[in-house]
């Protein structure tokens, strides 16, 4: 691997390294930060792990999460920086005041859309997660896998593949997972903490959404809505909403699941998920939004009812056209 | 493997084989039936696959599910029988009239509690699923893995490990999964169909249960209840309830999750799940029920309110004693 040498060179030059991942960190962001930090410390480096946003509680099962500090807790300027799982510079959050003028950034990421903003860019779109690239690094470097390192790498793989359920669950991912579990980590406890555990507020929000659940007569579209009152009472993080719209999409026979949500600024945010037929990215775009064929979103001005009256006929048309 | 030879001998003797799995089949039951049937047909055998209960719709993604017939759709008596994933004879359901007097039963199962009711018993408690034993058979027999066979074996592994989340997710399981995905099966579509897909009735039942969700002041116990009216309206299968009690257990900080459910016969069925501290098997036993430390159940005579008034103080006591 060509990139391996530039990485080793970077490490040999560095004494103090700043490790940063993206704002609102998910499992891969937290895990790749911890894994890279742990590796560098084993090599005798001084490491500062930073994130603009707090680490979600469900990841506290991982050792050392409290060592990831917020941007305003540190000072000084770093000359050696590793950016993990960040598709562009902005995803790192507000870290400008932490960078020396001649800061050298290694950008390690698996997003195909990565803007190659680093001085060295290790971008591997075939990797299911950034931790998969770190695993390859560990192997190349001949580092022995211990349980602590394995638990980090396992968490990133698990979360970025939706618990080995998404199409990025390649044979390679499963073989790496097997090697990680070989170390004796209690992988079921990680799965329980990071995939199964919910907050009571998430369940309360889900209950509100489910109580509004409706389905079209042909069973192809299911939708739910959350009022301003519901979200004011229960919404804590935007990740919580992702989970909810999937409940509508996952109904047997449904192709498109929708969540309509009233926001503070008098608009209605619409999340769309589809299984197979409708390209919801195209639909969202028609209303000024964006996204992919299977997951997209847009925003309407007006009430929940008005948003439904715009979106539902448009989806009906898509389905009619698909059925021709 | 010692058992391999008896299996091959059985196959060489048999022309017509009856394949049966347990009543209310889960993913491993359906998949092991289909996999064994497919293997035997490839070897030129006449195969009848039977199950007392209908195959749940979510498994229709697997080719050939419609060839699994119900007990009353077939006649004749079989001399060669393979029982899959059945811990005891009763689990096979009412198949007595299908067995010849000198019927020879091969009992293939992974439950440690298996009663060894067969003429040959291939019971492997270390296997995560019955399909794991079938995979070993396929390897030993030198059978090439095609996508159809791989999709069956993958489904059984996936469902019996809770989507690779339970503690039976061994490195071996993950390595087998990798080999199965190597064949090019769309494993994410299987995961979507068998793990993610829900019926609208399941969601309606979930909504009813969530609307009753309460949590103890210390956050360690969470409980929900379903009235007779709720279950009459929405309950279709008992599997649906398993899913629901886990929502209570999965709340951050909760150790014991409970579902109280009014039944037709004027009793209240109680499902208990725990994470770490309370042995709910012991608690259930104190009320005449049973189960394991992490999953158990019992039945009370009386109303939902009376059941709560008996169960909650008992759990409080357990937690106080654990905290000493």
From TrEMBL, chains A, B:
Gene3D superfamilies: 3.10.310.30, inorganic pyrophosphatase (n-terminal core) (3.90.1640.10). Pfam families: DHH, DHHA1. Residues 16-156 form the DDH domain. It comes from Thermoactinomyces daqus. GO terms for molecular function: nucleic acid binding. This is Bifunctional oligoribonuclease/PAP phosphatase NrnA. It comes from the Bacteria. Residues 239-312 form the DHHA1 domain.
């Amino acid at each position: 691997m060509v990139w391996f040498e530039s990485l080793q060179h970077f490490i040999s030059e560095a004494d103090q390294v700043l490790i940063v991942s993206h704002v609102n960190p998910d499992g891969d962001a937290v895990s790749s930060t911890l894994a890279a930090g742990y590796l560098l410390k084993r090599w005798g480096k001084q490491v500062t792990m930073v994130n603009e946003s707090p680490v979600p509680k469900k990841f506290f099962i991982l050792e050392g999460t409290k060592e990831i500090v917020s941007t305003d807790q540190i000072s000084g300027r770093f000359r050696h920086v590793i950016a993990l799982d960040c598709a562009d510079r902005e995803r790192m959050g507000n870290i400008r005041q932490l960078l020396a003028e001649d800061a050298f950034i290694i950008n390690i990421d698996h997003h195909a859309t990565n803007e190659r903003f680093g001085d060295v860019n290790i971008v591997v779109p075939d990797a299911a997660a950034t931790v998969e690239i770190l695993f390859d690094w560990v192997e190349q470097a001949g580092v022995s896998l211990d349980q602590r390192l394995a638990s980090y790498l396992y968490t990133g793989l698990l979360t970025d593949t939706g618990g080995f359920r998404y199409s990025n669950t390649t044979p390679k991912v499963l073989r790496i997972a097997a090697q990680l579990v070989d170390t004796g980590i209690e992988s079921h406890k990680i799965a329980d903490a990071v995939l199964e555990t919910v907050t009571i507020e998430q369940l309360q929000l889900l209950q509100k959404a489910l109580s509004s659940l409706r389905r079209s007569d042909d069973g192809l579209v299911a939708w739910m809505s959350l009022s301003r009152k519901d979200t004011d009472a229960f919404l804590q993080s935007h990740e919580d909403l992702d989970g909810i719209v999937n409940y509508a999409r996952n109904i047997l026979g449904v192709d498109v699941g929708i969540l309509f949500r009233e926001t503070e600024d008098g608009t209605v945010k619409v999340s769309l998920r589809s299984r197979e037929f409708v390209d919801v990215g195209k639909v969202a775009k028609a209303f000024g939004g964006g996204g992919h064929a299977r997951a997209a979103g847009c925003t309407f001005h007006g009430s929940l009812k008005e948003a439904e009256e715009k979106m539902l006929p448009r989806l009906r048309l898509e389905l009619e056209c698909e059925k021709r």
